[in-house]
Amino acid sequence: MKSLFSLQGRTALVTGGSRGIGKMIARGFLEHGARVYISSRKSEQCEQAAEELSSYGKCVAIPQDVSTIEGCKILERAYGKYETSLDILVNNAGAAWGAEFDDFPESGWDKVMDLNVKSPFFLTQTLHARMKAAARPEKPGKVIMIASIDGIRINPWETYPYQASKAALIHLTRRMAARLIRDNICVSGIAPGAFASEMNKSARDHEEVVAKMVPAGRIGSEEDMAGAAIFLASRAGDYVVGDTIAVDGGVAYSSFGHFGG
């Protein structure tokens, strides 16, 4: 039981790991003993984050845009220069786009759907052989999808493809879990609520206002996100298959909502 949450000796790849939720998860993994590789589209930002995170353990930057299948393959080859196998994959890279219904552009739709839905599938497919090489019944591989509570319940913002993509990702998590468990790979997900990040500027810049809308009375902390990811990635989460856990202070499942008169 003492090593239930240990990631000692395991390898992890976190996309979108240079900031926000991805960086929170990367740090948590490092502090629990994993060798962590972070990837993000912006090279300089990725390198800076890896240098900062290296104070907690071995962290290597692999800058790469994974919005295309070719980008996923390039990342897999780059990762292969460091490791022959992979224990944990966190599909965290994502995008959002907001515009009024009548003016919503195809470019915004495609950008969000490609990165939020297509990329997690094809990056996992590309890394499948490396994950199978490390996975065993007593130590299964882990794929963790970072969805959103916006995929569980709608919000008032006109972010149509973002909300649709996160709902799709939650269902995709279940379908991929059904296939990959036969290879001793557990696929699960996290649906974050309000965490301060570049993606959620409201929580970052208006914490007190956002906190009032959360049943728990606060926005999420780094420990909240890291803790959920460590649980799923470690031995503690080996029996969680296909589920997406809402880490949101109660917004999705424990909120009364608003009733009009």
How would you characterize the overall build of this protein?
By secondary structure, this protein is an alpha/beta fold. The chain has a single domain, classed as Rossmann fold, CATH 3.40.50.720. It is 41% helix and 13% strand. The protein has eight helices and seven strands. It is globular, with a radius of gyration of 18 Å.
SSE blueprint:
Elements lengths: L10 E5 L4 H12 L3 E5 L3 H11 L5 E3 L7 H11 L8 E4 L14 H29 L6 E6 L13 H21 L4 E8 L8 H5 L1 H5 L10 H12 L10 E4 L14
Parallel strand pairs: 1-2, 1-4, 2-3, 4-5, 5-6, 6-7
Summarize, please.
With 261 residues, the chain is of the alpha/beta class. It has 8 helices and 7 strands. It is globular.
Relevant terms:
alpha/beta, 8 helices, Rossmann fold, 261 residues, 7-stranded parallel β-sheet
| Percentage beta strand | 5-15%
Spell out the CATH superfamily: NAD(P)-binding Rossmann-like Domain
Uncertain runs? none
| CATH class label | Alpha Beta
Measure the end-to-end span: 52 Å
CATH topology annotation: Rossmann fold
Count of structural domains: 1
Give a quick account of the main beta sheet: strands, pairing sense, barrel closure: 7 strands, parallel
| Helix share, percent | 40-55%
The secondary structure category is alpha/beta
- The DSSP helix count reads 8
Oligomer: single chain
What global shape is seen? globular
Query: What is the level-2 CATH architecture name?
Result: 3-Layer(aba) Sandwich
